[in-house]
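As promised in the previous annual report, we have extended the structural survey to additional targets. Below is the entry for Striatin-interacting protein 1.
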Amino acid sequence: MCGPSDDIPELDFVYADADSLEREVSELYSFTELPEFALNQQVSRAELYSFTELPEFALNQQHYSDAVSELGLDVRWPDMSEAQRTTVLLSLVDKVELARRDDRLRASRAILYISQGCWGDLHTPDEVQSWARRNALLLYKCGVLPVLIDILNLEIESGTAPVTAVRKLAVSVADSSDLRVLLSVLYLMVEQMRHVRDSDPPEEVRLRDAFTQELGQPQDTGELLAVSLLGMVSRFCSGAAPHFPMKKVLLLTWKVLLLTLGGSDQLRRLRTAARAAAGLPDVPEDTVERTRTMRASSPPPAPVEQLVDAVFGPQRPRFTRSKVVNGDAMDAMNDSTDVAEEGGKSAEAGSGQPGQPDRSPPRCDSPRPETPVHHGRALPWKPKVHRRDIEEYLTVSRKKFVGFRLEDDLESMAGLPQPILEGRYILDKHLYRSLAEVQVEREEEISASPFSRPEQEVPQTPAELLFAGMLPNLPQYMIALLKVLLAAAPTSKTKSDSINILADTLPEEMPVSVLHSMKLGIDVNRQKEVIAKAVSAVLLLLLKHLKLNHVYQFEFVSQHLVFANCIPLVLKFFNQDTVQYVTAKNSLNLCSLGSISALDFPRCVLGPQVDLTSETLQLGDEQPYCWRNVFTSINLLRILNKLCKWKHSRIMMLVVFKSAPILKRSLRVKHAMMQVYTLKLLKMQTKYLGRQWRKSNMRTVSAIYSKVRHRLVDDWAFGNEVDARPWDYEAEERALRSKVDHFIARRYSPESLEELEPVDVSLSSVLAAPLELTPAFKANYRRWLEREVFQQSTDWDKLIEPGYMG
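The corresponding structure token record, generated without further manual editing, is:
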């Protein structure tokens, strides 16, 4: 249990699209795979790892050596010339395409060893990273990418491995050896290509752009690689392929999306370009960038502290060094000093004598005082106002002062007093029009005038191609991702019918010693953390890029996430000690190496290895937080914000599931960005929680006021809608779903709108249209004439009777 609120340290975590290259590569491998690396280096540690799987990675270096020997090359990889390395790789590519599975697997293992940097010939981690980057570029130049993708599709559709895995009582790491080799090579290539350096030569930049372009295009099967990987997740969750290594699949899915769609910087550039094309100014502030300069607030008191205050009375706070470092007390003192000084100056300026306030009543001809301007500390965000807020403001003002309403009129100001005009000026000054509003208005125009104002050709952006590829099975993909996230949640309990996401971590033989059990337990927790990190990153990337591409694509994905119970799932994820989760230390380090992780690649295979014993091992490292857990927590909060923002029915779900105490517990993590997104979720539901909740949580309300963007006409701080129910807003959700379904049908199912196509009513063109008669009709046309023409009597006089033609 956490200590007092002031004893929780502030985290120096910096949010980014991903962790460092070394950590991202190390998280690809589980501790269970380490003996394979150790045997590659021919270190005799069989006693320590006797419980693990067969040393399949020990064959990687052996197969590489065999391939080099067959070509008559007996030199180290760094000592080879570029032509010799190319010859080795082309020979391996030819072997990968052989019909025999064993030959393909041996060549794939040799390619994996090369993609890892040929660490057997190197001495330092920096050398391994440098050669891994060079080898990734060389692998792409030699055409390895399309070959590996074809082999991966072959393994996915293979029917023997799933049948074998289903028949086994427990699936282990040995059942996914082929897939793990292929996924590891692809992941290492994508991860190396994703990192850009200023010193990269033009040739590397050209290869990286070509690699990204190829990943974003459909394969020979017609599917994108990202869609194929999501299909693997769906098949795994359905039980059709329990041997799929989920951690590697999800990590590769995340990095493929991050490379093809783009990270935060690319998203910012795309948003600026899209707003400029729509005639809108750029967004004034970026939430991620602004929160990096903000300081975390002191968390609200824990329930134990509130109980102590209730029993013994509030304790007088002591002015300690920790409060000075934190700065909250100093901020409060500075704010009160600024207000006091301004109040004193205004009092002196308004009175005839120094220090005496002017209490004389204002005269009738005295001008109205102007709005005072505060020159102290400003709020971190510029307030925003929507067009509908201005419309509501003018409607209420006209009804009060003029007595009638003007629909869709924001220009007429006749009869309104000066204060109302000043308020209108302030609202116009902070008016913000989002790109989503422009897209919704354009969609309404297309629906109202499908012929006069049709949709132009849709740009085939990476996000558009991805959504079109995901659309046929998108609900299944979302459900599968949430199932995996539920299984990886630290608060979820193992059930008999739940999926086994640890299949690529568990060894064939369970450990028998305490040290082995400890290492396996840490590896299991680490596996769950990495999977949760990958799933949260995939969902956030999809929501961000689809919202920028078209808001109805974003709403389509959001609705399926909500239907799959994403909101209660995220709340269940946070229903724990969040401080303990973000500071978890599920890693093993050597006491002699300090913060160096002993079991992370490539340190686990370089230099002399120290035997891992209970005396030489320590849990965690010197870092006060776990990067991936903080990253996961922030991503899930951002997903929850995107799902619930401006959706009253979903906000009511937060209220019904009693999310306020769960989210307040997350405020105990002293990180500005995490607190901002948590406070946003609390602000959404404040007016539904009632006056008593605000009264007992004034510290949280003050934090919302000081850290979250304000809407000038929002009543979050004083509105009371405690009697609202989720079903009160079902009409709003149904209307949104109807618009989204119409958009999907119009853009992606043209056959459903055939009734809107114009009909040819010209008699001459219809008769002149070529008509091919069937052979059966030609053989029996005389019978048809006799039955349908000669034997039918027609009274033509009826045509001239009055009223016959209507």
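Residues 514-549 form the longest helix (36 residues). Residues 387-430 form one domain. These points will be discussed at the next consortium meeting with the crystallography subgroup.
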